[in-house]
Design brief:
four-stranded mixed β-sheet; alpha+beta; 175 residues
Length: 175
């Protein structure tokens, strides 16, 4: 069992994993569910009386976890002791509670984008919207021909060649 209090490297590993997992979430509903599940898991630890040597009832707590939460915990397999679980819950909750807004975003492009391209696009979107957690679903649609389209419940940005051609056609036919 790793002593998470003494092993800063283990804590850093858990925190890096949680950050990477959080960044890969595809929508806010999954983040909400993870937050709820991890909070319940934390409660199971809090109800156990460690001073009396009582262990948390993880069998009961894990029984009702969502598949996404179980997948999250599987990634902690090297640190899947009580301290590792608590450190991951703390790290995830800190990320979740720190963000002001959750935005489910659909990013459409003609070809798959590189990580650097996606990062630049989302940085620009964050400047327009403000600080938020973006859950991005990528769609490759050759019909857009080039450029990108970003869509969410409250935001729409279309800088695709297909849209520009339609606007040009409409303008020409209007004259």
């Amino acid at each position: 069992m790793i002593d998470m209090e003494k092993d800063g490297k283990a804590i850093a590993t858990v925190e890096a994993y949680v950050q990477a997992y959080y960044n890969r979430l595809t929508n806010s509903k999954i983040a909400d569910r993870l937050y709820l599940d991890l909070s319940q898991l934390k409660d199971a630890f809090n109800h156990a009386d460690a001073a009396a040597g009582e262990e948390p009832n993880l069998d009961l707590a894990v029984k009702y976890l969502a598949p996404e939460t179980l997948q999250f915990l599987e990634g902690l397999q090297d640190n899947l002791d009580n301290e590792g679980i608590l450190a991951s819950v703390k790290a995830f909750n800190a990320l979740y509670e720190n963000k002001k807004e959750f935005v489910n975003m659909k990013l459409t492009s003609a070809v798959p984008l590189t990580a650097e391209q996606k990062s630049r696009i989302m940085d620009k979107m964050e400047k327009r919207i403000g600080e938020a957690t973006f859950f991005v679903t990528e769609v490759v649609d050759p019909a857009v021909m080039g450029g990108v389209r970003l869509e969410s419940e409250n935001h729409y940005f279309d800088n695709t060649i297909a849209t520009k051609l339609k606007e040009m056609k409409r303008h020409i036919l209007k004259d």
